[in-house]
């Protein structure tokens, strides 16, 4: 009689006792721990970032562009946007609104602003019913031309009821600034997660810097999705070690688990990339479908610039000429030069400056685009700018804050 129990191999007994003996069980455990790692990271982030109550009774308050008042500078409403075109005489722009917010309920403020120039500064101003004659202020962060949200919790002057909010913009304003509105937020845990979710899923249009990769969502993110993935992989690895230590199981499958965690997050980011690409294809087809080459340029981001160049090229000589290009923004200088080739174009790539007076000679051309400090007297045909003696020139084309001169 054969004793089956006695003849069972040690390997079979170990396989029976090993909690990871089943491949399905191992795969399921890897999936659960990977998901748990993401939950731990996101929960820890929300716990650290929530400045007030986790559950807030107040809802976010949105103030649209038509509720804003331009107290300093020049601006006008276009659709649901307030477009600031010029600062005031002191070089600043001020946009204000009347509000009625409980400071203990609304701990975050976000101005929906885009188009701020490099070097510009922004500040949040506010008044309260506790000190109605006092105007408090705090600097705001700026990234990629956008104003960053600010948390007002623990600000000593953010007390009582906030009866007025304002945005102060200082510094250069070479192009219009777009203000969509302002949002006051309770900054609860749900608000934090809602904002991060919106950032992760925001459409990221092609900017021309790369046609094969995206950063993963909104231009400005507090907790980028790739960082979430990396932190989640690390947290899942730590949980795997804890679980295997408690179960007294071998850790030989840790490299496999790490590979699965990595591939899983790679898949998440890849799906998001594919979804973004699908939206980009749809938008590109809608924007450029059925247009010829010239119409496509007019429909592009350079549309305004190209329309002005169309006007300028109509008076430029057919043979290549010397053209000096001046614009406040480096991007505009480069694009203008590109579209003016094969003319002999000169511009400063790195900084905004007029060409030296002694460089100009008869027959040269000077194109000025969104650049301040140039004065032209049509009666005397005199063109002048700071630090240079006047030069005789004829104005050949005039656009919006732009002009083309031929030097005599």
Structural class: alpha+beta
* Corresponding CATH superfamily of the largest domain: Galactose-binding domain-like
Q: Provide the residue-averaged pLDDT.
A: 86
What is the helix fraction of residues, given as a range? 25-40%
Task: List the quaternary state of the chains.
Answer: single chain
Q: What kind of sheet is the major sheet?
A: 7 strands, mixed
Just give the CATH class of the largest domain: Mainly Beta
Distance between the termini: 118 Å
Number of strands: 20
**Number of helical segments with 4 or more residues:** 9
What share of the residues does DSSP label as strand, in percent?
A: 25-35%
How are the strands ordered across the major sheet?
A: 15-14-16-20-19-18-17
Output the radius of gyration: 30 Å
Q: What is the CATH topology of the largest domain?
A: Jelly Rolls
**Unreliable residue runs:** 1-17
Overall tally of domains: 3
The H/E string reads: HHHEEEEEEEEEEEEEHHHHHEHEEEEEE
Q: Outline, from the CA principal axes?
A: globular
CATH architecture title of the largest domain: Sandwich
Structure commentary:
This protein is α+β, with helices and mostly antiparallel strands and about 400 residues long. It has three domains: about 25-50 and about 190-290, no CATH class; about 60-185, Galactose-binding domain-like (Jelly Rolls); about 295-405. It has nine helices and 20 strands. Strand 18 (about 380-385) and strand 19 form a beta hairpin. It is globular, with a radius of gyration of 30 Å. The relative contact order is 0.10.
